[in-house]
Amino acid sequence: MVIVKGGVTAAKGFEAASAGAGIKYQGRTDMALIYSKKPCRTAGTFTTNVVKAAPVKWDRSVVESGVKSQAVIINSGIANACTGEEGYGYCKETAAAAEKALGVEAEGVLVGSTGVIGMQLPIDKLKNGIREMAENKNASLENGTSAAKAIMTTDTFHKEIAVSIQVGDKTVTIGGMAKGSGMIHPNMCTMLSFITTDAVISKKALQKVLSEDIEDTYNMISVDGDTSTNDTVLLLANGMAENEKIKYKTKEYEKFAEALHLVNEYLAKKIAGDGEGATALFEVKVIGASTKRQAKILAKSIVCSNLTKTAIAGHDANWGRILCAMGYSGAQFDPEKVDLSFESKAGKIQIIENGRAVNYSEEKATEILSQPEVAAIADIKEGTESATAWGCDLTHGYIDINADYRS
Amino acid sequence: MVIVKGGVTAAKGFEAASAGAGIKYQGRTDMALIYSKKPCRTAGTFTTNVVKAAPVKWDRSVVESGVKSQAVIINSGIANACTGEEGYGYCKETAAAAEKALGVEAEGVLVGSTGVIGMQLPIDKLKNGIREMAENKNASLENGTSAAKAIMTTDTFHKEIAVSIQVGDKTVTIGGMAKGSGMIHPNMCTMLSFITTDAVISKKALQKVLSEDIEDTYNMISVDGDTSTNDTVLLLANGMAENEKIKYKTKEYEKFAEALHLVNEYLAKKIAGDGEGATALFEVKVIGASTKRQAKILAKSIVCSNLTKTAIAGHDANWGRILCAMGYSGAQFDPEKVDLSFESKAGKIQIIENGRAVNYSEEKATEILSQPEVAAIADIKEGTESATAWGCDLTHGYIDINADYRS
């Protein structure tokens, strides 16, 4: 497996484009297109929120229908959530406009939106954007990057990555782009991720590999515990690598899964580290667990704790808050067996042994916690299972973005 | 039912005292005593956190043993949590010191601690404090207030209340004090509440009335979603009102339950409104639910949402975040049936009807949300059940208290 340049256009046959359609933002791009020369098998995972945005409903029906997809149209600025029948109608119109401009089947056109809730899309502007992107699309890495930039909301940097693996004598590439917690009044953060691959892979294997991997990647990150109405991960495979078909549970499947995991983990970590107001990526590893589930519950509880997140913001080795967050997680464990360490580029330091503080240097701990990427490792000494969760610190910046936005 | 003056000393036969023992704070009181002339039946409810502080373990065994209690010794500054055998030993020593100083049975002495985690209590200072309080205790309302002040950590005001009801021809009084989310490095918020009553009431009725009421009061508040290792509510009944014994599920029981509810709700709301950094009490009512459980899950999800809490801090009628928080709560409902209003002293305004924004005045909404007590009312139009939760806004003050504490 090698990391290669680019994002959604890295895999064979994929093109991208962006446009400044003026949907809500001015002076920047706010639409992105992913186009495949050949129709793609498509897998998707969507928000579990009861309140689902129109694009989520639309994409789910496309993915479940099994129809092949050749284009994804994404906009930032307006989320098309809580917009009723009218909003769902705009998904249909978007697909129809893409059919007209790109010569693809409308039933297979996927859409994605992020931004303000409760506002209707200015559909004519969207249609203009689609026409513009149909003209400008190409397979360059620059166009892939421009698409990754166009979907940003309050993200402070764009997020993309690509990797290649060998499947038999063929090179298979997986590339992706994502956007994280952006907040635009009156709205919430939304996580969108779009992955493209030229692999030949069965429909079943494609959905399985995505559904299984998100449990260890996107579902293990938290910025503020608020699950958006729009969260979507889409995986498109156009088969242009011409490898022997990858089937579920084969050796080649495992290889593909590993590569997809690298892409998803990279994007998920970038989303976590770029959380609103974040100054640090906060990684939490729980090791020595009896079950994976127990490890996950504990890791997520720590990474979601406001008190722990503010301690990280303050570079404070506040182990009491971490033990506390483990304690209310709902998972069982023996607090008097817990070992806890902090680690970063500045070193590693043990803070707790068997549930009690060891005689550690606060100065060294603060130095370790002052890095832009910090990790807490909790060993509960019960078994061999482990899990990792990612989040960020909770800072004044988060309050600025989310409370003071209008004042 | 009438609200009367005072707190824990309002009921007959209860005395209180405070002392500045120098446990961790300097220049303020940090110990409180509640003493009853006659031994009390006692009920208690405790944190569900797996990590339980020593006083929680101690009190639970006292309450479960059925032994009568005549004194509660509380300290602020150090939580006596994650302190192992040594910490539990200090509960025992505290009880023994109280026996010696007050002439009460050590097995019935209750203890409470709040403050730093992982630090051992300076037991000699505690013993000095107990002796001092044994000398100074009296039944005055002032001493009750001084006890309520001594248990504060980062609370910005003390919290106490008392009510009286008639049971037959006797006056029964219930008084209480509580402390809320105080954060002292390296620690977490802790909720402690101590209720005294002179009622004659059966052991079973006493525990039932407390256990049932906390579900609608203390368990419906949230400051930051972090459940402490020390959370404790104790209810002591000394029987000195000489009323006919109150038994479970009788008419008199309901009357007593109503009075206790007023006390608990008052204290719970004060704790929520005095959350760290809070500038507003945020009340959430979910009405029109099919079940009480559904209403509670929805109300708590809204009140715990960081995005909603920052919106309240910004006086922002951000209904998208509220619908979103309802959506990920885990409770089922139809988003397209939801009506939502905001209400405060400045008026009431409807924001959503059937899941869609109505044409409301943002200016009026901001005016309503700029009050120190604001409410959101969500009607899900399914049935007749309802629930109320209380929290506070999430502000720069919370970050200041919890992140910048040491810098």
From TrEMBL, chains A, B:
Subcellular location: Cytoplasm
Active-site residues, as the UniProt record annotates them: T190
InterPro entries per UniProt: Arg_biosynth_ArgJ, ArgJ-like_dom_sf, ArgJ_beta_C
GO process annotations (BP): L-arginine biosynthetic process; ornithine biosynthetic process
One term under GO cellular component: cytoplasm
Enzyme Commission number, as recorded: 2.3.1.35, 2.3.1.1
Keywords: Acyltransferase, Amino-acid biosynthesis, Arginine biosynthesis, Autocatalytic cleavage, Cytoplasm, Multifunctional enzyme, Transferase
Record pathway: Amino-acid biosynthesis; L-arginine biosynthesis; N(2)-acetyl-L-ornithine from L-glutamate: step 1/4; Amino-acid biosynthesis; L-arginine biosynthesis; L-ornithine and N-acetyl-L-glutamate from L-glutamate and N(2)-acetyl-L-ornithine (cyclic): step 1/1
GO terms for MF: L-glutamate N-acetyltransferase activity; L-glutamate N-acetyltransferase activity, acting on acetyl-L-ornithine as donor
SUPFAM superfamilies to which the protein is assigned, alphabetical: DmpA/ArgJ-like (SSF56266)
Regions annotated as coiled coil: none
Domain of life: Bacteria
Reactions catalysed, as given in the entry: L-glutamate + acetyl-CoA = N-acetyl-L-glutamate + CoA + H(+); N(2)-acetyl-L-ornithine + L-glutamate = N-acetyl-L-glutamate + L-ornithine
Binding locations of substrate: T153, K179, T190, E276, N402, S407
Primary location group: cytoplasm
Enzyme's top EC category: transferase
Keyword Oxidoreductase found: no
UniProt site (Involved in the stabilization of negative charge on the oxyanion by the formation of the oxyanion hole): T114, G115
Subunit and partners: Heterotetramer of two alpha and two beta chains.
NCBIfam families tied to this protein: ArgJ, PRK05388.1
Role according to the record: Catalyzes two activities which are involved in the cyclic version of arginine biosynthesis: the synthesis of N-acetylglutamate from glutamate and acetyl-CoA as the acetyl donor, and of ornithine by transacetylation between N(2)-acetylornithine and glutamate.
Family as reported in the entry's similarity comment: Belongs to the ArgJ family.
Protein name: Arginine biosynthesis bifunctional protein ArgJ
